Amino acid sequence: MKSIIFIAPPAAGKGTQSKKISEKYHMPHISTGDLLREASKGNTELDLKIKQLMESGSLIPDEIVLELLKERLLQDDCKNGYIFDGFPRNVSQAKTYDQMLEEMKFDHGIVIYLDVPKELCKKRILGRRLCPNCGAIYNNLITGMESKVENQCDRCGHKLETRNDDNETTFETRYQTYLENTLPLLDYYKRLGMLYHVDSTKSTEEVFQSIIEILERGVSHD
Ligand code: AMP
After folding, report:
1. Domain 4-118+169-216 has CATH 3.40.50.2000
2. What is the 3-class SS of 70-91, one letter each residue?
3. Is the minimum distance from the CB of 89 to ligand 1 under 6 angstroms?
4. Cα 53 to ligand 1 centroid, rounded to whole Å
5. Which residues of the chain, if any, have pLDDT below 70?
């Protein structure tokens, strides 16, 4: 299976879809947001800087992200493809990544754009609840995505949490960062003939089916 890059505004569903693809095709799900959240747990100056940048909704400097990513790609499970959730976030990261692929002799894979209007992204951000124990994702504001018991994980019973950067102020910065830095990637990948479009306003299952069509038949319908 080819590697997948998702380009999407905040809370367009890239985390949810990455998990589902990872389970179906047994490919590793690599979230740079998760790698950075993990890396920022310490107390060094760098850890605190990462934490503060993430909480403000700004991007982390490319060198830090690329270093973490390179380490991850060298692990054995990445040899037959992987799913990128949150990388690349700008054209400069995409260019460096292209060079890394050449060096590692990895395939370039495909790019899927999850298209969602701003207002829906906001609703998804403000309602998002995560299980820190098993990684399940819920949403209080979206019918069908709520947990059965408020603030409790259906799968493992753990108390649900809200991400530090899932609030209204940070959302505006993250969305602006997306428009300025990440959206230009659509042109970059379109020119390389790698881009597929998916309407991600639909239900999780419908979006997942559209992605499967792309992966298995190389077509997108919307
Ligand atoms: P995410 O979990 O993808 O929503 O990312 C959360 C935050 O992590 C972002 O708002 C950025 O601060 C940081 N981040 C994640 N991926 C990247 C990346 N590829 N480049 C720079 N910063 C990133």
Report:
1. no
2. HHHHCCHHHCCCCEEECCCCCH
3. yes
4. 9
5. 219-222
